[in-house]
Amino acid sequence: MKAIVIAALLATGISASGAEAPLSRIAFGSCINKTNHAMLDRTLTLPFDLFVFLGDNIYADTADMQVMKAKYRALRESSFFQGLLKKAPFAATWDDHDYGVNDGGADYPKKVEAQQIFLDTFNEPANAPRRKRPGVYDARVFGPPGKRVQVILLDTRYFRSPLKRGDNKAEPSGGPYVPNPSPEVTMLGEAQWSWLETQLKQPAELRLVASSIQFISEFSGAEAWANMPLEKKRLLALIQKTRANGVMIVSGDRHWAELSKMDSGAGYPLYDMTSSALTQKHPRGTPTPNIYREGPTWHEANVGLLHIDWEQKNPPITIQVIDEQGTVRIEKQLRLSDLQSRQ
Fold first, then answer.
1. What is the distance between the alpha carbons of residues 204 and 150, in angstroms, rounded to a whole number?
2. Residue-by-residue DSSP string for 183-235
3. Is 167 buried (19+), middle (13-18) or exposed (0-12) by CB count in 10 A?
4. With the C-alpha atoms ordered 151, 153, 154, 159, is the resulting torsion angle positive or negative?
5. CA distance 326 to 47
6. Distance CA 39, CA 28 (A)
7. Nearest-5° Cα angle at 148, 239 to 47
8. Minimal CA–CA distance to 41: which of 304, 303, 281, 332?
9. What confidence tens digit (pLDDT) does each residue in 262-300 have?
10. What gap in Å lies between CA 219 and CA 171, rounded to an integer?
11. Distance (Å, rounded) from C-alpha 259 to C-alpha 275?
């Protein structure tokens, strides 16, 4: 019953207390290949009003739906998931390993069945929009006017075109993919693009866009929006077209944490905080090139935390990456006005 209530609260944007309270602290993370880990335990001790699953929430990599159900069942029965149900609402999107196939896209043959299992796992209400359409993209607004946080969950799997492979030997850490400049390829699919434009026109002071893969990073050898440069430009153009203020991106996938920053073209900078992985260390420890990187990278288990102090006139926003000891490894402080167009 608790799970159903939380899902319903998420659908309406109402806090678990029953009041339309603003979101002040949002935790986010990705890549859970173990259901018991010190980082998961640490995450539950942190203060947050919402947890965002960024994808690779399990590692299934299968077309056998019974195997996928078993993996999701293990997640649901874990002390982390059960603790989360008691602590705060959550929102979730998927990445390749919980979608069903490594680096998978629209050609995955079990995507319809995988979506059903995903939505069942994360307690999606029977009448929710993403029960009635392909893909797991979703958006919810939390908080009263003047303190609204819009959480936009993108689906970078269900509609995504095949990636282009090529010679990436020049890259110091390799990777099989190269940018595909074709206007025919898509990351989100036309239905999701149209939906996203509508969402960016909704009133909100801060917009947290959850992308399972990195948006800003220049590196395209692994999966990233850089694989499809025209699609990356399309999102930047959409932010400009809709005059959407307050956009920030959170991403996962890479098995290390880093903060990227670029000119959005909308009159304010765009930030992408990558938090990955919740339960494992990156085996190599060497980050791929990224001219947009700000500050250090972190290659041990980590979780992201966003804090907005709505009590101040120009609310400060603190973005952090925290390790399993509770130590802050990456931190960036902004003001809400830094994410507003000056044009």
1. 6
2. TT--SS-HHHHHHHHHHHTS--SEEEEEESS-SS----SSSSGGGSHHHHHHH
3. exposed
4. negative
5. 12
6. 12
7. 110
8. 303
9. 999 999 999 999 999 999 988 877 888 899 999 999 999
10. 9
11. 9
Residue with tokens 């999606």: 124
- Which DSSP symbol is given to 51? E
Contact yes or no for 238/120 (Cβ under 8 A):
no
Angle between helix 38-45 and 79-87 (nearest 10)? 10
Q: Are 293 and 308 in contact (CB under 8 A)?
A: no
Confidence of residue 218 (pLDDT cuts 50, 70, 90): confident
pTM above 0.90, yes or no: yes
Q: How many CB atoms lie within 10 A of CB 174?
A: 12
Give the pLDDT score at 284: 79
Q: Would you call 86 exposed, middle or buried from its count of C-beta atoms within 10 A (0-12, 13-18, 19+)?
A: exposed
For the record, the structure tokens of 106 come out as 């629209």
Cis-peptide into 226, omega within 30 deg: no
Residue 306 reports pLDDT greater than 90: yes
SS3 of 283, please? coil
Task: Render pLDDT for 69-95 as a digit per residue (tens, 0 to 9).
Answer: 999 999 999 999 999 999 999 999 999
**Among candidate residues 216, 215, 320, 316, the one with its CA nearest the CA of residue 275:** 320
Taking CB atoms within 8 Å and a gap of at least 24, the contacts of 226-231 are 226/179, 227/163, 227/164, 227/177, 227/178, 227/179, 227/180, 228/161, 228/179, 228/180, 228/185, 228/186, 228/187, 229/179, 229/180, 229/181, 230/181, 230/182, 230/183, 230/185, 231/185, 231/186, 231/187, 231/188
